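Holo model, magnesium ion. Inputs:
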Amino acid sequence: MQRLSKQCLSIIQTRPQNSHKGTFGRTVLVGGNAQFGGAIMMSAEACVNAGSGLTTVMTDPSNHPALHARMPEAMTVDWNDKELCDSVLDSADVILIGPGLGEDKKSQDLLSYIFQKQKEDQLLVIDGSAITLFAKGNEQLPYPTQTIFTPHQMEWQRLSGVKIADQTEENNQKEQKKLQATIVLKSHHTEIYSNQGRFQNPLGNPGMATGGTGDTLAGIISGFLAQFPDTVDATNAAVYLHSYIADQLAHDNYVVLPTKISQALPYWMKKFEH
Ligand SMILES: NC(=O)C1=CN([C@@H]2O[C@H](COP(=O)(O)OP(=O)(O)OC[C@H]3O[C@@H](n4cnc5c(N)ncnc54)[C@H](O)[C@@H]3O)[C@@H](O)[C@H]2O)[C@@H](O)CC1
Ligand SMILES: Nc1ncnc2c1ncn2[C@@H]1O[C@H](COP(=O)(O)OP(=O)(O)O)[C@@H](O)[C@H]1O
Ligand SMILES: [Mg+2]
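Output:
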């Protein structure tokens, strides 16, 4: 397994003068039921700060005022308004579904709807409850090689059937090959399994063991996929930078608040800009 290094951040290039919002991608984030609104808000805060050109959050309307108050840069769509959802999804480069989605019938219907809508040239990131729902269901991935799962070890156990204690490189790789999707297996040393190789993140700290850290990573991955052309390079860079920033914050903070990682993204991306 190849260890990630600062080298993976070389994809963060100086932006061309002649550019506009569309140059840096359109991302649509689907999640945040009434109970878990914070999850999709953290994904949105991460996605915007990661540099996504345009970020739209498709969520329960109860979250709209709080999201506008916290992150006016993100646009909101009522996930019950199918006509508006159709048009927003049609122009997306990257779709993220799962943070705070929940696991009820409505959540399942939303996952099926996104599967129906995904186009061949769109990337789909599946996180949180959407992983659990997909694992329980019997739907097929529309475009496996356009899909990135971001499970923690328990979500991976549900998805792959491999118990946490048996999640070895060999077993994980076998299951990734079956799925053909890219897998970001989150832990104290996150691993990335893909058709282009296997990578290990050497960074990270226990201050990250708090609700929202994974929602935040999903937002950064989505924002990077919207900007940078290679899926695995963008995913690796997002995983590495998410932990790198958390390690900096952990010098002076006992717990690393996920939103502090997001707020520090523009500063560190500027530092690593090539
Ligand atoms: N502020 C919010 O609104 C938050 C919402 N969240 C959402 O809550 C939903 C459920 O996600 P959860 O992950 O909390 O719940 P899950 O039920 O998916 O998994 C967490 C459970 O698995 C157990 N577990 C065992 N080993 C584990 C491991 N190695 N890593 C992680 N968990 C392990 C944990 O103890 C916990 O009981 C998701 O949609 C998620 O996005 C969470 O992200 C937390 C923050
Ligand atoms: N002890 C740890 N050391 C390093 N990273 C950790 C540790 N515990 C959790 N993390 C990181 O925190 C995140 C947890 O993801 P997840 O459980 O999905 O969080 P969320 O509550 O946002 O759903 C992952 O990126 C994981 O790598
Ligand atoms: Mg999670």
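DSSP finds ten helices and ten strands in the chain. Residues 87 and 117 are 10 Å apart (CA to CA).
Archived with the compound record.
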